[in-house]
Amino acid sequence: MRVVSLFSGAGGLDLGFKMAGHEIVWADDLYEDAVETYRNNIGNHIVCRDIAEIKTEDIPECDIIIGGFPCQGFSVANMNRYVGDERNELYKQLLRVVGEKKPKFFMAENVKGIKNLDKGKIFEMILKDFAGIGYKVKHEVMNAADYGVPQTRQRVIIIGVREDVDFDYIFPVPTHDKEGRYDRNRWVSVGEAMSAIPNPDEPNDLPNHVYSKYKLQFNGYLGHRPLDPGKPAPTVTARGDNKGGVVILPHPNGQRRMSCREVAAVQSFPLDYEFAGNNSSVYRQIGNAVPPLLGFAIADVFNSYKGEMK
Ligand SMILES: C[S@@+](CC[C@H](N)C(=O)[O-])C[C@H]1O[C@@H](n2cnc3c(N)ncnc32)[C@H](O)[C@@H]1O
Predict the structure, then answer these.
(1) CA of 36 to the centre of ligand 1 (A)
(2) Which residue among 37, 46, 94, 99 is buried most deeply as judged by most CB within 10 Å?
(3) Among candidates 97, 19, 43, 42, which has minimal Cα distance to 65?
(4) pLDDT at 171
(5) pLDDT digits (tens, 9 = 90+) for 210-234
(6) Which is it for the CA torsion 164, 167, 168, 170, positive or negative?
(7) Is residue 255 packed enough to be buried (19+ CB in 10 Å), middle (13-18) or exposed (0-12)?
(8) At 79, is the pLDDT very low, low, confident or very high (cuts 50, 70, 90)?
(9) Whose CA is nearest to atom 9 of ligand 1?
């Protein structure tokens, strides 16, 4: 498929689509460091601009539009409040571009919590809006650990198939299982993921293998809980704690925080995927990403579509 990618960030989702054999023809994000990361690893087809400033006719023809729109602008308190919030314009931007380009498919990713905002009314509205522009819409909460990512990250995936396109998107069957049941592999643990990575305090040539010196203190709060090396890691986040920095998981050895490289490995980025920017920016880009292996599982399903592509 020819893919257009919005809110592309450092390119985690796009890498998954590339791994599945699709061609990304155009991408956009306004975060300069993420765009540089994207250019260095995925390709030069990315534009660094606010999506609101981009005219649909400047976006090339494609078979699918993909993207995770930030959802902070939706109010949980009052349905009317989200209408005026500029951040929710980002969702409107995705709707605008899909509605005007009318690709065969679209795919949107978001946090699981979006389903509960305003007692589910906002999610209902999103599904209705896409149905209203001519798409059959399906959604599923997917756990990245079920697809070989060493992390129990849960995200809601929305898939739209244009009404006239004869294709039933079936969400991918998990390849991994918590207990290794149903002939599936056992979830990949964070200990296994870390075993391939040298100690950052010893000479090595891995990119971004530097870690935050922010003090480890196991007090039960986000980012301050010990990690069980025998299980997948909890969700890697780009959120800050109450002191403003990005929350960085401790290393399962309990001695320090994970390096950017190690957090990237927990997100299933390849070891040579190099991120641009200072450490906070890199941790943030990684926390924002869709794990490439999850992106691959979602993208690979489209290879069973036998109809014509552009
Ligand atoms: C959740 S991240 C996407 C991560 C990406 N899907 C990945 O897998 O790496 C959302 C992205 O939206 C971008 N963004 C926010 N507002 C934007 C705007 N107005 N125009 C373009 N990009 C925007 C942010 O910079 C951020 O990189």
Answers:
(1) 13
(2) 37
(3) 97
(4) 98
(5) 998 888 888 887 778 899 999 999 9
(6) negative
(7) exposed
(8) very low
(9) 289
